[in-house]
Each structure stands twice: as structure tokens, then as C-alpha cells.
Amino acid sequence: MGIYTRTGDEGQTSVIGGRVSKDDDRVEAYGTIDELNCFVGQAISFAEGEKFADIRAQLEEIQQELFDCGSDLAFVKINESKYKVKDELAERLEGWIDACQEENPKVERFIIPGGSTLASTLHVCRTVCRRAERRAVTLGKHTEINPAVRRYLNRLSDYFFVVARTANVRQGVPDVEYVRSKKVFRK
To answer: Which of 149, 37, 158, 36 is nearest to 94 (CA)?
Structure first.
């Protein structure tokens, strides 16, 4: 099988159930998810050693689920029986978030992306994930989509924020706080 097909040379691409313009909202949504998946792969490469084995395993699972998200958004005609992403995935992310939160110090100020290489990469994942979520919201404004994908992406960006902080904690690197901020997070 050749890698090039020449079928997209005129600015169209295939989706499940038809062809659309390469700048279609659907392509933007699952393309951004694909971009996110690349950064997750990069984060995995920085999650070395036993102290990151759990995070590495989670990120590897997330990569599979991101492919599922893209697949679900690629349907031109709704076929709920074919959807792969279910609400249970977002609920599982909540469990991972809660476990990481127990390791992290309390947040008092806004956190600026940074710290360790792994944490910085996870913050990139967070921001690309937020963009993927926005693209899914845009798509959902004019066509029906699997709502579990949108919920998953929303929770996933929270996961990336929390696990970035956990990566810093495990490496003994402090979070980078926004120093001009007053203490805004109190319990």
C-alpha cells in the first residue's frame, strides 16, 4: 500500500460516510485530537523510570482513547452503536485526577506552565486538549456528535493540569506560580 493516494490534492478528504473539505469543522476537530495525541506521545518519552510507570501507563491508554475520540468525530452520519467513547472514560479520568491531587500541594496562585520537561509537555497537552474541546464544541453547534467525546476532552484537560503538577512533585521541581497573583485559591 502506498502512503500517497492523490485523492486529497483538490482539498477534500474522506471521513466516515463521505468526503468533506480539509478545513471542515469535523476535520479540524479530529485533526486537533491527532495533534494532541502527538504531544501525549512526546510526554510518554519524558516519563522515564519507575516513578512515572503509572503516569506512562495512563498516557498510553489515553493515546488509544484519543484515537477513539477522533474516530467518533469522523462520522458524517450519526451511528451511536459504533461510538467507542463512553462516559465511563471521563469518570475513570476523575479517579486518576483525584489520586494525583493527593500528591500535589494545594494551589494558592495560578500556575504558569513550566517546571520539569515532562510537566511542561503535559501543560502543552492541556492547552492543545482545550483547543480540541473547543473544536468539538464548534462542530457540535451544527451537527450531532458523540457528547461523551466533549466530556472526555473536558476532563482530560483537567487531568493534564493535575498530572503536570504531579510530575513536578515527583521530580522535586516546584510549580511555576504566577507571582503577580494574589492567593486566589483557598479552602
So the answer is: 158
